[in-house]
């Protein structure tokens, strides 16, 4: 009895199902519905696990990127420092190349130095260089540019630095002459006016644009460029001409050379 | 008889096993065999029939769970429900001829071995019925090769066997004669 009941139940269920399947296939065009998230619960779980793994991956990636960023910043700072060192060495090399010719011409020992401070006060024009007594600098030594232009002379010496009196300082003077000419005189510093070329008689030949160089008649070596004649005032009532020189080198930080005996 | 599990908890436990099978079926079978999810539910239905026998409540519960599976997996209506009815009918006929007791009425564990073989046969019957319903009701061009790929695959055979043994073990552990509360 029980078995017959089960059989009948199965038969009825199969009939009902068959009717519903035919209805779905013919009338509803085989509609399929899916109500679960994703293709299955497991796929959704996989999705979440994958997203969590991806999220932790982002955190790890962020940590790695952070560490790499710090490393690259350090590398960049070192590169900048290296570039600065290379540039400094290049400048020093250029200066040394220029002074190499000078040393041969002057037959004197040259000490490369650098100006690190300039004072253009009404009481005098001075510069500070980064070489001092420890490097053999002594008072009275001539300071020139690597190109052979007169900068000044050492007025005070310290252990690792020295004070240089610039050529435009009123206390500075040097015997000079017109390049490729006979006219000579004494060039005196005139502060903002450059230098005054004194003791040039009315009969001496000098004109604007002439280059003035040292004669070597004093303690400063000969052939160093002082400047270019800026202005010549002729006055027959005066014994001497008033000649003004524009110094070749303007005071500024940069490489210089100290002429040592 | 010691009735340590209440009647209501039995039903919840079956549904819990069904959900677990769906989750595992969505991970293991697709990952190992490349087949879409859905084969595990057939194993579950076979285990359900073997464990409890063919009773009205078993048939009704199987129809409900098969229908829910069709909705969740987006399968054609009736393919799994129809397969379940065919499977249930086949097991019912076999029980009438062999006069077997369901697994839930057996205390011994070794009985799982022959029932596993029966379960595999029911699984093949169910898959064939599912293919036939899909072929004749919805997909006229569906090739038998689709079915043969399932029934001839050693990987699918091994995975199905393992799933069947595990589900039968769980059912037997929960619903053995010591614990069952006969309605």
Please tell me about this protein's structure.
The complex is a heterodimer of chains A (261) and B (183). Chain A has two helices and twelve strands. By secondary structure, chain A is an alpha+beta fold. Chain A has a six-stranded antiparallel β-barrel with strand order 1-2-5-4-3-12. In chain A, strand 6 (173-178) and strand 7 (184-189) form a beta hairpin. The longest helix of chain A has 66 residues, at 41-106. In chain A, 35% of the residues lie in helices and 30% in strands. Chain A has helices at residues 2-27, 41-106; strands spanning 109-121, 124-129, 142-144, 150-157, 162-166, 173-178, 184-189, 195-198, 211-214, 225-233, 242-247, 254-260. Chain A has two domains: 37-107; 109-261, Beta Barrel (Thrombin, subunit H), CATH 2.40.10. Chain B is mostly helical and 183 residues long. Chain B has a single domain (7-175), classed as Orthogonal Bundle (Arp2/3 complex 21 kDa subunit ARPC3). Chain B contains seven helices and no strands. In chain B, helix 2 packs parallel to helix 4 (79-98) and helix 2 (39-52) packs across helix 5 (112-138). The radius of gyration of chain B is 16 Å and the shape is globular. Chain B starts with 6 loop residues before the first helix and ends in an 8-residue tail after the last helix. The interface between A and B is medium-sized, with 29 and 32 residues.
Class by SSE composition of chain A: alpha+beta
Number of strands of chain B: 0
Number of helices of chain B: 7
Taking Cα atoms only, what radius of gyration of chain A do you get, to the nearest Å? Answer: 46 Å
Overall mean pLDDT of chain A: 85
- Beta fraction of chain B: under 5%
Residue share in helix of chain B: over 70%
| Number of self-contained structural domains of chain A | 2
List SSEs of chain B in N-to-C order: HHHHHHH
Poorly predicted sequence stretches spanning 5 or more consecutive residues of chain B: none
Strand content of chain A: 25-35%
Per CATH, what is the topology of chain B?
Arp2/3 complex 21 kDa subunit ARPC3
Q: Greatest interface and its residue counts?
A: A-B, 29 and 32 residues
Strand order of the largest sheet of chain A: 1-2-5-4-3-12
What separation lies between the terminal Cα atoms of chain A? 136 Å
The radius of gyration over CA of chain B amounts to 16 Å
